Amino acid sequence: MVIDLWNAGEQRPVETLSGGESFLVSLALALSELSSGWSRLESLFLDEGFGTLDSETLDAALNALESLRLSGRTIGVISHIDQLTRRIPVRIDVKSTGGRDCTIAVEIYILWNGVLKN
User: Fold this and answer.
1) Going by C-beta distance under 8 Å and a sequence separation of 6 or more, which residues neighbour residue 2?
2) What is the model's pTM?
3) CA torsion through residues 21, 26, 29, 33, sign
4) pLDDT per residue over 77-111, tens digit each?
5) Closest CA to 34 of 70, 1, 59
6) What are the tens digits of pLDDT across the range 30-47?
7) Which of 22, 3, 20, 19 is nearest to 11 (CA)?
8) What is the DSSP track for 26-43?
9) CA torsion angle for 104, 83, 31, 35 (degrees, to 10)?
10) Contact (Cβ atoms closer than 8 angstroms) between residue 36 and residue 61
11) What is the dihedral of CA 39, 43, 49, 50, to 10 degrees?
């Protein structure tokens, strides 16, 4: 069961969560585990799910991930969402060139006046 605080504290079965809600619940559980101090997890890798979030919720999720990164944790994200990739300071860009071939580029950005620049 999930207690839906956005819906007057309604108790809902987990199966009724939307894709975005399921992603947020999973992310919240992972973040609480990482920040609790009870475990020795030093890294978190996320494969998508961000595309199901509205811009305000995406911003809140990214702020939480940034907070973990600044505390020394390694955060890896696989995504194609522009709003997300613009906020990631180190990127590994893998692009298919056809068949079984691909190109790999590593980009490192620095924060300059609140904007990431390479």
Assistant:
1) 11, 12, 13, 14, 17, 25
2) 0.64
3) negative
4) 887 777 777 777 788 888 889 888 999 998 887 76
5) 70
6) 777 766 767 677 777 887
7) 3
8) HHHHHHHHHHSSSS---E
9) 90
10) no
11) 110
Distance separating alpha carbons of residues 44 and 101, to the nearest angstrom: 28
CA separation for the pair 18, 51 (Å, rounded):
13
- Tokens encoding 36: 């609790």
- Both tokens of 28, joined, read 């919240």
Q: What is the DSSP letter of 113?
A: T
Q: How many residues does the chain have?
A: 118
